Amino acid sequence: MRKEADPGINFFQRYLTIWVLLCMVVGVLLGAFCPGAPGAAGPL
Q1: Is there a contact between 37 and 31 (Cβ–Cβ < 8 Å)?
Q2: What percent of the residues of the chain are helix, what percent strand, and what percent coil, each to the nearest 5?
Q3: How far is CA 19 from CA 6, 7, 11, 13, in A?
Q4: Cα–Cα distance between 14 and 20 in angstroms, integer?
């Protein structure tokens, strides 16, 4: 018997490239507009 994958996982996997690209853009913009953000996140 074969179990089907969770539909939520398929949604995430289907758009994984978009999520990664979006996170990269947010990171670049955060670094450009809030240069102190990486230092503040360092202790985390």
Answers
A1: yes
A2: 70, 0, 30
A3: 19, 17, 11, 9
A4: 12
- Sequence length of the chain is 44
Per-residue tokens: 35: 């240069």
* Residue whose tokens read 């230092």: 39
Determine the residue type at 40. Answer: A
Structure tokens at 20: 């990664």
Q: pLDDT per residue over 1-44, tens digit each? A: 566 656 667 888 889 999 999 999 998 998 899 888 778 877 77
Q: Is the pTM of this model over 0.70?
A: no
